[in-house]
C-alpha cells in the first residue's frame, strides 16, 4: 500500500511561543488550533502549514495523564511523531499485522477533522513513533 508523508508532530511546552516560531520565523500559516481532552490525547494542538508541509504542535493539557506530557518528561520537547497518509487505514492495519508490526493499544481514533489515525509501536519501528492516517469522509 502506498504511504505518503502527511505531517510531523512536535511536542512543545509553550504553544504560544511555538506558534510564533513556526509562523513568524519560519513563515508558516496557522491553519487550525483546538484542544482535545480525549483520553490518550489531552493536548492543545496547533496545525501549521509551511509551503505545503504540515506540522502539528502538541502541548499537553494534563501533566499527569497526557501522553505528550509523558513524552516531554522522558525525552524533552521536539519531534514526537512522523505521520504517513495511507489510502485505507483498515487495509493498512491488516498489512501491518501481516508484517508483524504492532500498534499502540488505545491509540486508534478519529480527530475533529475526520482523520482516522493510529500509532505504530515504536518498539517495532526503530524507536520512532509513526502515525498512519487516512481521511475517509
Automatic annotation (TrEMBL):
All residue ranges annotated as the VOC domain in the record: 4-135
SUPFAM superfamilies: Glyoxalase/Bleomycin resistance protein/Dihydroxybiphenyl dioxygenase
Keywords in alphabetical order: Metal-binding
Source species: Halobacillus locisalis
Any single biological process term in GO: L-methylmalonyl-CoA metabolic process
One Pfam family cited in the UniProt record for this chain: Glyoxalase_4
Transmembrane helix recorded as keyword: no
Name assigned to this protein: VOC family protein
Gene3D superfamilies according to UniProt: 2,3-Dihydroxybiphenyl 1,2-Dioxygenase, domain 1
UniProt record similarity statement: Belongs to the methylmalonyl-CoA epimerase family.
Amino acid at each position: 500500500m502506498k504511504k505518503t508523508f502527511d505531517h510531523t508532530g512536535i511536542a512543545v511546552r509553550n504553544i504560544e511561543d511555538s506558534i510564533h516560531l513556526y509562523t513568524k520565523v519560519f513563515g508558516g500559516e496557522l491553519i487550525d488550533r483546538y484542544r482535545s481532552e480525549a483520553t490518550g490525547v489531552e493536548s492543545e494542538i496547533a496545525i501549521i502549514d509551511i509551503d505545503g508541509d504540515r506540522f502539528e504542535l502538541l502541548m499537553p493539557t494534563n501533566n499527569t495523564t497526557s501522553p505528550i506530557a509523558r513524552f516531554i518528561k522522558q525525552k524533552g520537547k521536539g519531534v514526537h511523531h512522523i505521520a504517513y497518509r495511507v489510502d485505507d487505514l483498515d487495509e493498512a492495519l491488516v498489512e501491518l499485522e501481516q508484517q508483524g508490526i504492532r500498534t499502540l493499544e488505545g491509540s486508534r481514533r478519529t480527530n475533529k477533522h475526520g482523520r482516522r489515525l493510529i500509532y505504530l509501536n515504536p518498539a517495532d519501528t526503530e524507536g520512532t513513533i509513526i502515525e498512519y492516517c487516512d481521511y475517509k469522509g
